[in-house]
Amino acid sequence: MNMYSVNKELIKDAGYIDGQWCQASSGNTISVYNPATGEQLGQVPDMGVDEAQAAIDAAHTALASWREVTPKERARLLRRWFELILEHQEDLARLMTLEQGKPLFETRGEVLYGASYIEWYAEEGKRAYGKLFAAPTHDKRALSIQQPIGVVAAITPWNFPNAMITRKVAPALAAGCTVVLKPSEETPYSALALMVLAEQAGIPAGVINMITSSQAASIGKVLTDDSRVRKLSFTGSTRVGKLLYSQSAETVKKLSLELGGNAPFIVFDDADLDAAVAGAVISKFRNAGQTCVCANRILVQDGIYDAFVARFKEAVEQLVVGNGLDEATTLGPVINQAAIDKIAALVDTAQSQGAQLITGGVRHAAGNLFFAPTILANVTQQMDIAQQEIFGPVAPVIRFSDDADAIAIANDTPYGLAAYFYTEKHSRIWKVAEALEFGMVGINEGILSNEIAPFGGVKESGQGREGSSQGLEDYMETKYLCMGGIR
To answer: What PROSITE patterns does the record tag this protein with (predicted)?
Structure first.
């Protein structure tokens, strides 16, 4: 295994159940590859139904004692986990670049972003307040308390293999819940390294259990069918999210679903053009376009359409495509063969439907999974590329006439995760922000995620929020207490 200069302590080729590092009972493994080079990095266990059941058993057993740990003590353990992640930032970043492909400047940023959720919930967990209500009559008192929901199942994706875990696990632990976690089989090493540090931080056995598996459907079924799992948190495709949603109905689980997006990035003709171009580049091409909140459709007003496209082309052609371990690289590979084939097909179809290729449009010579950063102009909302989540370094640019036109095009999608717009008019800012049917809106800003803010979508982009105080509430139940006989 060539893991270059990553600290060997952090590299685990085992799952983690009830405080023990373990293999799959079947003996089966999953091979993990570096998307930039195609080189095999190693193998992790391909765990199945038995291990999933054992993980739920362990989480259920650990719940009784973990929920009794004081919020202050849980906060201390989370704080220690946060500190250990910061100490190992460079190793965690290199490990992520090796298995996921994104450039080092992005993986370093993700490690800090992921850690910020642990720090936030270490603090926020001490602030889970109840309420005292005005009594309905003199002989009664009415109050409510907040309690942990119970065992939580978390299923996380490969595009942010660190932060999607911390964003779910930190509030669950802070609330007093225990967790069964299934990370993506594409990027298990980043997840397992976090687990190594959680163990070092002193988080007790059974509180976090991690199953590595390629058997997503059967593991998902075990997690949704078991009535002891009271909450499911999933980040991934809308198709899979809907399936998990329906499977959770039988046991009426609480759900947090962060699903697909089709983010509009709107540039009005009064926008600061340089800021809009810079925002579009970072929003669209971060992580090679493989983020659920990235600009999926760029909507530009008639008056500045040509000027925007010309400047955007100039900026996009400055991107440096290559292996993420090279410090000069600003755009890495996509995750796998299926991903690059889908991207290439979408670009070809768009051109056959009348889109004009401005730059890129081809697979890149850097390697099998690299696609040249691409701009397509004269795209219409009816084209396939405007209706689907691209999840690649391709920017379709759509023309619009006025505010009402922009809002109609932006909202013409079943998705409602993120939207962005650039304008200098304060009245337009309010009107457009309120009219967009999305859970998050970036205004003169291309990046909007941080730990203090509620992250999540509306419509078919999901439900629930991660981050902010709301992210803690999503792992707790409210219990009302009615006290009578007060004389």
So the answer is: ALDEHYDE_DEHYDR_CYS, ALDEHYDE_DEHYDR_GLU
Local confidence band at 2 (pLDDT 50, 70, 90 cut-offs): low
pLDDT in tens, 163-219: 999 999 999 999 999 999 999 999 999 999 999 999 999 999 999 999 999 999 999
324: left (phi over 0), alpha (psi -120 to 50) or beta: alpha
Distance in angstroms (rounded) separating the CA atoms of residues 458 and 257: 10
Residue 69: closest CA among 145, 150, 177, 221: 177
Q: How far is CA 404 from each of CA 44, 387, 401, rounded to the nearest angstrom?
A: 52, 19, 8
Q: Hey, what CATH class is 263-450 in?
A: alpha beta
Catalytic position from the list 124, 258, 460, 466 = 258
Question: Active site includes 473?
Answer: no
Residue in the structure block whose two tokens are 């006439």: 401
Number of residues written out for the chain? 487
What's the pLDDT score for residue 1?
47
Q: What is the mean pLDDT of residues 68-75?
A: 98
Query: End-to-end alpha-carbon separation of the chain, Å?
Result: 73
Express each pLDDT in 285-304 by its tens digit. Answer: 999 999 999 999 999 999 99
Instruction: Kindly tell me if the per-residue pLDDT of 280 is higher than 90.
Output: yes
Contact present, 121 and 472 (Cβ < 8 Å): yes
Cα–Cα dist 468/452, whole Å: 4
Three-state SS at 180:
strand
Kindly state the tokens that stand for 133. 């209500």
- CATH architecture observed for domain 8-259+461-480: 3-Layer(aba) Sandwich (3.40)
- Token pair for 326: 């090279």
pLDDT digits (tens, 9 = 90+) for 444-474: 999 999 999 999 999 999 999 999 999 999 9
Domain ranges of the chain: 8-259+461-480, 263-450
pTM of the predicted structure, to 2 decimals: 0.97
Residue 263 in 3-state DSSP?
A: strand
Strand positions, DSSP E, 87-213: 131-133, 141-148, 151-155, 178-182, 208-210
Indicate the SS3 state at residue 198. Answer: helix
Reported in sequence order, the residue ranges of 393-475 that DSSP labels E, i.e. its strands, are: 394-400, 415-416, 418-422, 440-443, 458-459, 462-463
Nearest 5°: the CA angle 274, 392, 102 is 85
206 in the Ramachandran plot: left (φ > 0), alpha (ψ -120 to 50) or beta? left
User: Of 110, 50, 156, 462, nearest to 286 (Cα)?
Assistant: 110
Mapped onto helix, strand or coil, the DSSP state of residue 414 is: coil
Residues 416, 209: Cα–Cα separation, whole Å: 32
Q: Write out the two tokens for 337.
A: 């063969």
